[in-house]
Amino acid sequence: MSFRITGLSAQPFAHLFGLDDAALARHGALRMHGEGLPDRVELRDTTASETVLLVNHEHQPADTPYRSRHAIFVREHAGAAFDAVDTVPDALRRRLLSLRAFDAAGMMVDADVTDGHEAEALIARLLARPEVDYIHAHYARRGCYAALIRRD
């Protein structure tokens, strides 16, 4: 079964790009520098010369007990969102993942943990369940939202 992984749109974060640290703080955001920080837009790790914004993001807006928000990294001046079929980006591939399957009403129906190198097998198992509408990938160690997975 084909699947599509997508990153977040940069548009909701664009108003933060280029702000000074005081203005970012007023938005509850923080600028950070560092190699290997996982951007949630392009779904890639940053290089040493790039900056990211650490922001709080509501990744599960469904009005259910599973409504959720958490800290995520967004590369400052990120471009187009990652969007690919049957491709697990390296930023997910190299990490331990928690995959959480939700139905159309936003209720979690299944979840499991997998090494990113073995993500396809768990994605296939979860998407084989007819009640699963979408999957949220999280970086398991810190619990941060990583990406959206749907059937293609």
From TrEMBL:
Superkingdom per UniProt: Bacteria
Xref: InterPro entries: DUF1203 (IPR009593)
Family matches, as Pfam families: DUF1203
The protein, known as: DUF1203 domain-containing protein
Organism: Roseateles asaccharophilus
